[in-house]
Amino acid sequence: MCEKHTPSATHHAADSSKSNTQGSRRKRLWDLSRDTHCPVIGVCIPLAVLRRLVNKALGGNTQADDYEIHVGAVAECSHRNRISEVLQEDLDQRYALTIKRYRAAKTQEALVRLWVDAIYQGDVAGAFWAGLTHPLCDAHIEEGMCRDMHMLQHQAGATVRADIVRFNSLLEENAILSREMARQQERHTRHIQEKAKEIEQLQQTIVHLRAENIGKESAIAYLNSDLQALKNSIPELNDKQRLRQKINEMSARHQELEQQIRELKQRQHFNDQRRAQNEYEHEKLIAYQSQPKDIKSHRTIPITVHLQQKNVLCVGGRSGNVASYRDLIERVGGHFAHHDGGMEDSQSLLDSSLAAADLVICQTGCISHNAYWRVKEFCKRTGKRCVFVENPSVSSLARGLEQATEELSIASDQSQTTPSS
What we know:
The protein is mainly α. It has helices spanning 9-13, 34-44, 47-58, 66-76, 82-94, 96-102, 108-121, 125-132, 139-233, 237-289, 322-331, 348-356, 369-382, 394-417; strands spanning 311-315, 335-339, 359-363, 385-389. Among the domains are: 9-171, no CATH class; 311-417, Translation initiation factor IF- 2, domain 3 (Rossmann fold), CATH 3.40.50.10050. Helix 13 links the parallel strand 3 and strand 4.
C-alpha cells in the first residue's frame, strides 16, 4: 500500500507570481489541458452518470463498455461539443457548493490551502473540479493537483484491494451465518408446524367435548321431560309421595316406641328381680341376726348377686384384705383371682390374668398408673366387663359386684329380647 504523500501543489504555489493578474472567469472543461481530462472524468463523474450523460448527448443508448465510454468522453473534452457541454453542466451542478466555497480564494496560496484541506479531509472530487477551473489555477498548481490525484488514486486502489479482501471475508462469514440462520429458521418452522398441529388437535378435542356436553345436556333435558310426563300421567302422585313419607315417619316413630317399651319392660323386670332379691336378703338378714356372733363375724356385708362360677379378677387393693376379697367372691359363687396391680406381682402376669377373667374389678385407689391403663385398654379392646372401685374396702368391692351383676343382667335381657322384636 502506498504511503500517504505530501501534496505536490504546495511546492508550486510559491513559484507563481501571477496571483491576481489572471481574469476572474472560471475555466471550462475544454479549456483545461488534456492531461486533466482523464482524472476529471474518472474521479468527478460516476460511471453510471457518465453513461447517462453520454446517452443524453448522443440521443440514444450506447452499447460500449465502461472503459470505452470513459476513453470516448475524455477524447471529446479536448474541444467544445455537445458531450463536453453536457459534462460541463453536470459538473457545475454537482459541485456547485464547493465551487462557491472556492470563490473565496483570492490568492493562489489560499487556493492551494483549500486543496490541501480537501485532501486531508478525504473529499477530493468536488475540490479537484473547483480547483482546476478556478481563475487563479495556473499550470504549476494544475500539475501539482494532478500529481496529488494520481497518488490518491494509488492509495484508493490499495484501500479498495484491502476492502475487497475484507469484503470477501465478510461474504464468507455472511454465508456461514446465512446457513446457520437457515437451519434455525427450518427448526423454527418445524417447531411452529408441530405447535400448530397440537393446537389443531386441541381444538378438535374441544369441539368433541363441546359436542358431548351438548349431547349430555340434551339427554338431561329429554329425561327431565320424560320424568315430568310420567309425573303428569300418574294421578295424585304428590299425595302418594306425601303419604309414603308420612308412613316412613310413623314407622320410625313406631320403632322408637317399641324400643322404649322394651327398655321399660327390662327396667320393670330388673326392678322385680331387685325387689325379690331385697326381700330374700331381708329374710336372710333376719335369720343372720338371729345367729350367734362368732358365726357372723366375717359375714357382715349383705350380697344380693350370684356370679355363677365366673372367674373374677381383682386388680389392686390392700394385701390385708385379699382373704376377705376371696371369701366375698366365693360366697356369691365365683372363682377368685388377684393381682396387686404392679406393686409386687410382675406386670407380665397381668395380661394372662386378664385373659382368663370373666369379670375384672379394678381397685383404682391401690394400683400403679401403668397397670390402670393396661387394664382399661385391655377391657376396652376385648369387650370384657370391668368395674372401677376407688375405695379398697370390702364393702366397696361388694357394691362393685352388684353394679357388674346389674350390667350383665341388662345385657343378657337385651340379647334375649332382640330376636323376638
